[in-house]
């Protein structure tokens, strides 16, 4: 049996994957697993470490039980800050056959305002003095191509508000996670095979950041040109699923839809 572990990003918990895990399982013969980061979700009362390394230490400890109970091949996928976590994990001895990174960036590979666009910085700063409802609307606005006033945005922001009310993330933990994301550098190629994905419409982190990491790692890079923002699993899950089908060795041959960067760069 094939297994894949999903890791979320800044201030997001495993429930923020939404329908994505079920869509992946329905589309291919693989079991999806999720874990919360320290300071998020079920671990919201614990303090978030200020280094990527310590956060991954915790994830690795949590993963041991999953790995023991679910024999077979394992893959790893992370988005945004979660992409930094899984890249750090790929520097270590691990059981993952391949590691996937979505819409992530690293301090030494991309300029500051490519990693966090001026618009995103302005909106995030504004959100600190607003209510939880307004904060979720801003997060949705920054991470989806659809506005928070859309029907999808209305239902999603209210769903997220419910998560926040049950497992509130402290402001201290938010800033500790932000410090992790701002300072992490990739000094050497990971040990694992890596695959990178970005959304051309990402208004939080420019897609060129993902391309820079892929170049550094000599790894495949896939660019989603369909309507999609930073939360690619929410906006265009079929793109990610197609990449997974191509990059994971399944016995059944799937039709390839997503083109690699070398094949579609000329169309930008």
If you had to describe this structure to a student in words, what would you say it looks like?
This protein has a six-stranded parallel beta sheet, sandwiched between helices. Helix 6 (132-143) packs across helix 7. With 268 residues, the chain is an alpha/beta fold. The radius of gyration is 17 Å and the shape is globular. It has one domain (2-267): Rossmann fold, CATH 3.40.50. It has twelve helices and six strands. The protein has helices at 20-27, 52-69, 81-89, 112-115, 118-127, 132-143, 151-166, 171-183, 207-217, 232-235, 237-247, 261-264; strands at residues 2-7, 30-35, 73-79, 96-102, 194-199, 221-224. The N and C termini lie far apart (38 Å).
Structural features:
about 270 residues, alpha/beta, Rossmann fold, six-stranded parallel beta sheet, 12 helices, 6 strands, about 15% strand, globular, disordered C terminus
The CATH fourth-level homologous superfamily: Alpha/Beta hydrolase fold, catalytic domain
**Low confidence ranges:** 254-268
Largest sheet: 6 strands, parallel
Relative strand content: 5-15%
The largest sheet has its strands arranged as: 2-1-3-4-5-6
Outline the fold blueprint.
Elements (H helix, E strand, L loop, with lengths): L1 E6 L12 H8 L2 E6 L16 H18 L3 E7 L1 H9 L6 E7 L9 H4 L2 H10 L4 H12 L7 H16 L4 H13 L10 E6 L7 H11 L3 E4 L7 H4 L1 H11 L13 H4 L4
Parallel strand pairs: 1-2, 1-3, 3-4, 4-5, 5-6
Helix pairs in contact: 2-3, 5-6, 6-7
